[in-house]
Amino acid sequence: AIKRSAPARPSTVTPGLFCCAQYSLDAQWYRAKVLKMSGKHLTSVLFVDYGNTEDVKTSAIYTLPKEYTNFPCQAVHCYLPDILPPKGALQWPPHCGEKLEGLCLSGCVLRVKGSALPNGGIP
User: Fold this and answer.
1) CA dihedral in degrees (25, 63, 35, 31; nearest 10)?
2) What is the pTM of this model?
C-alpha cells in the first residue's frame, strides 16, 4: 500500500494516466492506471502491481508520488495460448482458475515466453 502525506488531484483523469487509486476492499492506496471513464463519477482502473481492475470513484484518484514511478509494475498479463474453455462454455468455470492458481503457488514450473513491456513496464 502507498502511504501519502500531501495528496494532489490530477488536473484531468484520462485513460492511460498512471496514478494512485483507492481499493474498495481495504481502503488502501495503490499504483494504478486509468483504463476508461465508467460514468460521470466512476473511473475504471487497473491496479498495476496486482492485476485486478475496479471501478473507483474519480474522487479517489490522486497523482502518484514520483518515488513510486521508478520501478516496474509487478503484475504481468499472462494467458495460455490455444487453450479454450470446455466445449460450449464462453469462459472458464471458477474451479479451473483456482486449480491453475494452486499449481502456480505450489511451485509448478511454467515456461514463460514473451518480451518486456513498452513504457517502462506499465501495462
Assistant:
1) -50
2) 0.66
